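Write out the 3D structure for:
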Amino acid sequence: MARSNRAILVGLQRPGETATEALCLLDELHELVGNVGVEIRGSLIAKIREENPRTLVGSGKLEEIAALARAKECGLIIFDDELTPAQQRNWEKDAKLRAIDRQEIILDIFITRAKTREAVLQVELAQLQQMLPRLKRLWSHLDRQRGGGAMQRDAGETQLEMDQRKIRDKIAKVRRDLAVVVGQRATQRKQRQRVPLPTLSIVGYTNAGKSSLLNKLTGSEVLAANKLFATLDPTTRRLELPSGRAMLLTDTVGFIRRLPHRLVEAFKATLEEAVQADFLIHVVDLSSPERIKHAETTLAVLKEIGAGDRPVITILNKADLINDPMDRAEALAAHPGAILISTQTGEGLPTLIERLEQCAAAKDKKVTLLIPHDQYALLAKLHANATILSSASEDEGTRIEVILPSRLQEPCKAWIIPG
C-alpha cells in the first residue's frame, strides 16, 4: 500500500475533557477510517490548552506527529478535529505530510454509500462546498512542483479564479437539480399524508440498528449492514398492528458526533421526514459505552432540524449483548421510559408494539357521522382506514359510529353529529 494510504490518527484532548472522552472519539475515528480503505499505522492523543491557528497543534507536537509518521512510513495524518484549508496547507509545508480531518473521511464514506439521485446530489453538493476553499492548497502544491516563477504564479492565479468560478457554477446547478428532486420528495410526502395513517421516523446514531428494526417490524428487506452510514436515503414501509391499525415507518440517515455541518445542510431534505413525522422512534445502541453521548448527539441534531418537539419513543437496542441485570437497570435509569429490545432475538418487541398501539390510539377520536349518500369515496375510505363501530342507513345518509384516525378527522369534520 502506498504511503499516501497509510495514516496516523490524531485526537485532541482539550481542557475539561477526560482522556476517556478523547479516546472514545479517537476510537470512532478509527472505525470511520476503516471504511475508506486507509491503513492505520498508529494513533495518538494531543493534549492542548488552546488551538494553534496555524497548524491546530503546537510546533513541538507537530514534529512529534511527523516523526511518528516517518517512522511508520506514512504520508497521511488524519485529525479528529476540523482543519481549516490554511492549516492543511501549513501541515503540507511544515511537515511535508498530507493532513485531512474527520469531515473529509465522513464525506468519503457518504460518497461510497450514496445510491439514489437525491443522495448523490446531496453528497456532490457537500463535496463541492468543501472543495471550493481548498483549491488554493492544490494550486500552491502544483506551483511548488513546477518551480513557482512569477509568470507561472500569475497563470496559476488566473486558473485558480477560473476553477473557483466553475465550482460555483456547479454548486448552483446541483442546487437547482436538488430542488427538483426535493420537490418530488415533497410530492411523495403529500401523497402519503393523504393516506390517513400515523407516521413514525426511526432516528438514532449511526449503526444503532435502525434498519434492522424497520425490517423486524415490517418484514421488509432494507439493507441492514453492520457498518457506518449504511442508510443514506429514507425508506418508508407500512406497519400493520395487531389491533388492525396501521402506521407508516421511515428509516433515516444515522447521526454522528461532529457530523460536518455542510452534510447536515445537504441532508436536511432527507431529515425532513423526521420533522414531519407524528412520532419518532429513537434507537440507542445499548452495547455501546458511548450510548449516552450518542443519544445526546441525536437529540441535538433533531433540535437543530426542527424536530425537537416530536413525541419520542426511546428503545435500547442490542439487549442480547448485555446480560448483566445491573447494567440493564443502569441503562434504563439513564433513559427513563425506554424499552429494552433486541432485533436479533425479538426481546422487547411486544412491548414496543404495545407502545405503538398507544401512539396510534392517542390520535384517534370516537365520533358519530352522518355521511350523505353521494359521498361514496369518503365512505370507502372510512371502511378501509377507520374502525367502524356501527353503521345504519337513514334518509339523509349513512349514520356511522366510528373511531377516526387523526388524518381522517379534518375530511370528516363537516359530517360530525354533535353530542
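Confidence is low (pLDDT under 50) at residues 141-147, 149-153.
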